[in-house]
Specification:
Layout: H1 5-14, H2 23-28, E1 31-40, E2 43-52, H3 54-60, H4 77-81, E3 92-95, E4 98-101, H5 112-120, H6 126-147, H7 162-178, E5 184-185, E6 188-189, E7 194-197, E8 200-203, H8 207-215, E9 220-221, H9 232-241, E10 243-244, E11 252-260, E12 271-278, E13 284-287, E14 289-295, H10 300-309, E15 315-324, E16 330-338, H11 343-354, E17 360-361, E18 366-369, E19 371-381, E20 384-394, E21 400-405, H12 407-417, H13 421-433
Parallel strand pairs: 5-10, 6-9
Antiparallel strand pairs: 1-2, 3-4, 7-8, 11-12, 13-18, 14-16, 14-17, 15-16, 19-20, 20-21
Helix pairs in contact: 1-7, 5-6, 6-7, 6-8, 6-9, 8-9, 10-11, 12-13
Length: about 425
């Protein structure tokens, strides 16, 4: 059922994050987080409302503020994305001995620079502050792109109000409290239909969500209902913290929780589920496109030069396979791996270099890759020092399963020392393993 800031807060709290981790936001803003247990189609879920404190409510001048106007593509996490049910339309909650007003739409409308200043002034762990600022930058860039402005001129409207800041910084604090190493998400359901905003009627997903999705690692899918299910705030949080996956990865589940949206639907639970557990030993999912072409009239020199020129335009790997073509003529299959967004540019360079009349895209959509890092070791041979680079491959848990010396480095040292390349490789790799 998509994602919104309040749903992320609820899911993380339900999955075990400490409510007290949110106190830096309450200390910096005149708001408080109100968490309650609700039922969504038989699922017990945590609903989080961001409420103004008494002082803020009094300063605002009302406990019953109407929030019918939403600016531009700035759809809001509580009203449009997952709005209040018929049971809590009044936008005020009894809390203790006082009525507390929902923070949505209240407070100043801030520029990007003002939001940055506010976040930097909070008493946040360094990593949390960096994550929150990165999320606001994603939001700012999306809004600037939609409206044809630059980042410094971006005005956040509702997204810069107190409750949206509370959603973003709060989500970062709760993730930090859970101390997770990696976040993945299945495709986000956007909903469908249209949504009314002050600039007019817009299709779902809204323009800002589309802009954010273009930069994110995960994908969108329509439905399952005609309502707005993904908000800019929810999309921006996940764009920064989460990798995309088509299905639930292998996971030894240790905790789970459901964050409730505002709508109580008749036929399906309006919730976002968070699973926390151990997914050790996985490889990283990397979205790719595989391009191929068959050639039978290209010289060996040109084929060899593809290894040098195609990476300049985005190729990640180039393979050239001998084959037999029509009329039993010898030829070659050129296979190139690249990122989807670079496929057209790589295909054009391949066509220009080889003269091929067609480049096809094969069915591969992703690959599983190891995390890679490079370490430089210093070998001593007959009193002389030589630097050699060694590539280290590991899974997402940091377990090393391959160590290999860069061949060009090993060959250069072998030429200088009259030792075999294999001996240089063995010595360099042993230094890394030890």
């Amino acid at each position: 059922m998509g994602a919104a800031g309040d749903m992320l807060l609820g899911a993380l709290l339900a999955a075990g994050a400490d409510r007290e981790a949110l106190s830096p936001v309450e200390d910096a803003l005149d708001i408080e987080y109100a968490a309650s247990e609700v039922d969504r189609c038989g699922i017990a879920a945590t609903r989080v409302d961001v409420l103004l404190t008494d002082a803020a409510s009094d300063a605002d001048g009302s406990h019953d503020h109407a929030h019918d106007d939403h600016s531009g593509s700035h759809s809001h996490d509580h009203d449009e994305g997952h709005g209040h049910t018929k049971d809590d339309d009044a936008h005020s909650h009894a809390h203790g001995d006082h009525d507390h007003t929902h923070a949505e739409g209240h407070g100043p409308s801030r520029t990007y620079a003002e939001v940055v200043e506010l976040v930097e002034g909070m008493d946040l762990p360094k990593a949390v502050s960096a994550d929150a600022l990165a999320i606001f930058e994603i939001l700012g860039e999306a809004e600037a792109s939609v409206h044809g402005t630059d980042l410094d001129g971006t005005h956040f409207h509702e997204v810069g109000a107190d409750d949206a800041i509370a959603d973003i910084v709060g989500a970062c604090l709760l993730l930090d409290d859970l101390d997770v190493d990696r976040v993945v998400t299945t495709p986000l359901s956007t909903g469908g239909g249209t949504v009314e905003m002050s600039h007019g009627t817009y299709p779902v997903p809204t323009p800002a969500v589309v802009e954010i999705a273009e930069q994110a690692d995960w994908s969108l899918q329509g439905g399952p209902i005609d309502r707005e299910l993904v908000t800019p705030t929810g999309a921006a949080i996940l764009a920064h913290i989460a990798e995309g996956t088509e299905s639930l990865p292998s996971l030894d589940v240790e905790a789970s929780g459901y964050g409730a949206g505002g709508w109580d639907l008749d036929d399906r639970p309006n919730v976002l589920r968070a699973l926390v557990g151990d997914g050790a030993g996985q490889l990283r999912r990397d979205e790719i496109t595989v391009l191929e072409t068959n050639v039978d009239d290209v010289s060996p020199e040109v084929l060899g030069d593809l290894q040098r020129t195609l990476p300049d335009v985005g190729a990640r790997d180039v393979s050239i396979v001998p084959t037999t073509m029509k009329k039993s003529r010898p030829g070659h299959i050129v296979k190139v791996i690249c990122k989807p967004e670079e496929a057209e540019r790589v295909a054009r360079r391949l066509a220009e270099a080889t003269g091929t009349l067609g480049v096809r895209e094969s069915g591969a959509g992703h690959r599983w890759v190891a995390d890679r890092e490079y370490e430089t070791v210093v070998l001593s041979v007959d009193g002389e020092q030589f630097e050699v680079t060694v590539k280290i491959a590991s899974d997402t848990d940091g377990t090393v399963f391959d160590v290999s010396t860069e061949y060009d480095d090993a060959a250069a040292v072998a030429d200088a020392t009259d030792l075999p390349v294999r001996e240089i490789q063995r010595r360099a790799e042993r230094m890394v393993r030890e």
